[in-house]
Amino acid sequence: MKSSRRRFLKIAGISALGLGAKPVLDVMASSSETAAPKTAKGENVLTAKRWALVIDTRKLQSEEDLDPMIEICDKIHNVPKFENKNHEIKWLWAEEFKHEFPMQEPDFLNDRLKHMSFLTLCNHCEKAPCVRVCPTKATFKREDGIVLMDFHRCIGCRFCMAACPYGSRSFNFRDPRPFIKETNPDFPTRTKGVVEKCNFCAERLAVGKLPACVEASNGALTFGDLDDPESEVRAVLRSNYTIRRKPALGTGPSVFYIV
Amino acid sequence: MPNKKQMYDKGKVVIGLCILVALMTFPFWYNLGKAAPAPEPKLSEKAKAAKECVMPKAYMTSGHMQLLNEWRDTVVRDAKRIYTNPSGKKFNMSLSNTCLDCHVEKAEFCDKCHNYASVTPYCWDCHIDPKEAK
């Protein structure tokens, strides 16, 4: 009697386990069958290990030469124009030698460089200090080397502005919308209280286009993969003497200047 | 000495309590049966013609915010911009250019429900309603 009761319990237990397992197996079987939504990069996407830009300043003599590039950048990225310099938003702008390359200024700088305007933008540093200090990881480094901002995550603390040695970041002290002349509906604007900067035209690279400034530069700007020895930027860097902004800081800028 | 269970000024207290309860519940019975009906978002002609959204309607109604959050993170963080839904159709993950391309009337589609539910998503602080931009 005792042993048969034990056997009964054993069989009952195993049967219960079997009945319980069936729904689980059903769920697992069905989840592998129905197609889950997928996400992917576009077909024409331009990819690199580390995007870089070489600016040939010999081909960009005056500020008028820089204007078309700055204009197109501001236009496609909905960059506002503020009269008040304290509120200025800068993605791509002009700077003179002593501000562009402090500590690299020779005692007797030649006249051409002294009075020239240099195209200035975010350097998309290899070791970007803005990425290190961002408390919300709103600023991050993409795997292709672009230092990008997630405006959704930016809390406007401006640590990144303090950390950036190049002044490449601007804060929206006011709602920028009323100060955008012509809004480009393909790109969002920003809102009051976030920081913004150049994004190396990440939205254009995603659809197979080069950055807008490169396209508008008439060949003065070269854009490409710094990690690829066969790339155009590497060819330009091989055959020209280039300098970078504040190299002693060790940030490793990805923007090079042929002077 | 009066009985301990006796209530002082019973009449006044009870009347006072009745008035208090009546005042407190006034908003409830005053508005009884007058609840605003849930709005029905109006589909644009283009959305009607397309018949199908990115995901089934039931999912879009209840979970469009999760979907948009996923889209946002995938586009910004992973640089992936193409979304393939379970039936194999491809979409560019963009609020202004894909969602609003079909749902042309933001006021009739998004705002109607958001206002009713008293939610104020901050999407439009930055993202552009192409209709407003023009």
Describe it for me?
The complex is a heterodimer of chains A (259) and B (134). Chain A has helices at 2-33, 63-76, 97-100, 111-114, 129-133, 159-163, 202-205, 212-215, 232-239; strands spanning 38-40, 51-56, 92-96, 117-121, 139-141, 147-149, 170-171, 195-196, 221-225, 242-243, 255-258. The termini of chain A are far apart. Chain A is elongated. In chain A, the strands form four sheets. Chain A has a four-stranded mixed beta sheet with strand order 9-2-11-10. Chain A has a two-stranded antiparallel ribbon with strand order 3-4. Chain A has one domain: Alpha-Beta Plaits. By secondary structure, chain A is α+β, with helices and mostly antiparallel strands. The longest helix of chain A is centred in the N-terminal third of the chain and has 32 residues, at 2-33. Chain B is mainly alpha-helical and 134 residues long. Chain B has a domain at 45-133. In chain B, 57% of the residues lie in helices and 4% in strands. Chain B has a two-stranded antiparallel sheet with strand order 1-2. Chain B starts with 9 loop residues before the first helix and ends with a helix. The mean pLDDT of chain B is 90. The interface between A and B is medium-sized, with 26 and 27 residues.
